[in-house]
């Protein structure tokens, strides 16, 4: 993974670079037909025995936290929570949910988890996950996002992100670059109930929904090429899915007053054409 400083850049510059108001053609992508899982390009229902790891053919589990370039105080390695590939922090609950758990150890250190998809998806796809956040507390930083980590291409799409630092608004963001200098963002409420978070990625741009139903308008639209250095329409460009619950970092802030253990539950992840 590359070194990241885009959240540091957000802290310095704020959430001011909203997408252009240019209207996009309306899209209402339909889900794959019920019961026909073969129509999904990628899917995981997280079925499996309680306490087991997610399917290793679909997901890799992070063993450490990324290094942050130009770190602020909470980005420093000694202050950030760490990721571990352990069944205490990343596991299936036996009820068709992936659980990513953050804990506070007796020594005051924090540990949590992150999974990264092994599958890369192209343009003209719809990505969706059903998520419950039992982690809306100081220090936590849960996210459902997509990424291309090639250092010369970049690109990141945050379908849902919540910040325990109490300073940044939750919502969705499209990053053209990995350094946080070219992006469009839309604040949107995030709570602890079950919700689906969907993004349709088309030649015309990207469209975002919470709890999509046919005919519902997206709460966020980002026209193609409306952000400088837009990579998402490059021939052959693709991204992979990521789910994580970070502790501390610039987005999580100080976890000392938070309630731990804290958990992010994921019922399913689905990607289909259209």
Outline, from the CA principal axes? globular
State the order of secondary-structure elements, H for helix, E for strand. HEEEEEEEEEEEEEEEEHE
Question: Runs with pLDDT <50, length 5+?
Answer: 1-31, 33-38
Rg, Å, rounded: 18 Å
Instruction: List how many beta strands DSSP finds.
Output: 17
The major pleated sheet works out as: 17 strands, mixed
Please name the CATH topology. Answer: Jelly Rolls
| Average pLDDT number | 89
The N- and C-terminal alpha carbons lie at a distance of 29 Å
Number of domains: 1
In CATH, what is the class?
Mainly Beta
Helix content: under 10%
Helix and strand content put the structural class at mainly beta
Name of the CATH architecture: Sandwich
Proportion of strand residues: 35-45%
Number of helices: 2
Key features of this structure:
274 residues, mainly beta, Jelly Rolls, 4% helix, disordered N terminus
Structure description:
By secondary structure, the chain is mainly β. The protein has a single domain (6-13, 40-265), classed as Jelly Rolls, CATH 2.60.120. It is built from 2 helices and 17 strands. The chain has helices at residues 6-13, 249-252; strands at 40-44, 59-61, 82-83, 90-92, 98-104, 110-117, 121-122, 125-134, 140-147, 156-161, 171-175, 183-187, 195-202, 205-210, 220-223, 238-247, 262-273. The chain has a 17-stranded mixed beta sheet that branches. A hairpin with a 5-residue loop joins strand 5 (98-104) and strand 6 (110-117).
